[in-house]
Design goal:
It comes from Natrinema pellirubrum (strain DSM 15624 / CIP 106293 / JCM 10476 / NCIMB 786 / 157). Helix content is about 15%, strand content about 30%. The N and C termini lie far apart (about 35 Å). By secondary structure, the protein is of the alpha+beta class.
């Protein structure tokens, strides 16, 4: 797994897949990582941790992602505009 940082809150995240998971033979089916790439309707693409994903509204915009902030190691929230 590779390590990167969340585009919303900057916490360190792991991304499953790639050469690091070649010997798992599908046992975890790509569920080991702590982040996922979110692609917006306007073409924007962001690597976000799961707490940031949960803090976003149903149809997020670039502005919603820009307002994400870290509260602690477990949660994120959308800050005031």
């Amino acid at each position: 797994m590779s390590k990167d940082s969340c585009d919303g809150c900057d916490r360190t995240v792991t991304v499953s897949g790639g050469i690091a998971n070649i010997w798992s033979f599908g046992t975890d089916a790509g569920t080991v990582g702590t982040a996922i790439t979110l692609e917006l309707d306007d073409g924007g693409s962001y690597l976000l941790c799961y707490p940031c994903l949960e803090a976003l509204p149903d149809y997020p915009t670039d502005e919603d992602i820009d307002r994400l902030e870290q509260v602690d190691e477990e949660t994120s929230r959308v800050g005031s505009p």
